[in-house]
């Protein structure tokens, strides 16, 4: 997998950004995003104020909502699954080089903070801390947007270092939540996801999975919640919906055949499900995807 840079993001999403190849910040989350898994060479952390996002980090899916804190790192893999329209928040992206050029002892500081890989990628924070982070991000972004000198990057490094430090102080109280999930719980999650990928198209009840894992349904749901994942049933639904979209977009199967492949009793049941999930009927979705493909060929 190729390394993905901040410049790759700017180019792919057609963003207006020329100040630095090692740093970027945003408040409006663009709905245009890479549909593939990336291996970033940068750190990113932040919060959202409204809307939601679904993101996979190291193949584990997280539902990012107001009250979430999100961070991902160069050694991780990232795939954006979905971004709700008009999602807003505050995120920064920066490379290790960006900070090291300002603070040579960054490595010693870094290993003790939320930036280190031993800390979770997603957890929930309380409203007061969310508001404090939001205010702090806003003030720093105001400073960054008001700098108009050829030494912009030097000034940016100093305020971002301060942001990292202050954010870490706020997050200290969440230390118990930052510790990685136990190996046993991680194994449960991985086993469930493997079973799900093998069986989701059969639309089996959650009892099928918990019986295989020798757990109760409540235990499985609690494990997913502690890790900050979407629920097991939501994960199964995501797999089913993505497969339905794929089959409608990239196969020659008619809608009845697709409904059968995905274990729906009939076309009507499948169509009702699909429209509830996407707002479009299967035929309307297929027509839209066909039109998009034709435009891309021109």
TrEMBL record:
Keywords associated with the record: DNA-binding, Transcription, Transcription regulation
InterPro entries recorded: Homeodomain-like_sf, HTH-like, HTH_AraC
Domain HTH araC/xylS-type: 190-288
One Pfam assignment: HTH_18
GO molecular function, one term: sequence-specific DNA binding
Protein name: HTH araC/xylS-type domain-containing protein
Source species of the chain: Sphingobacterium athyrii
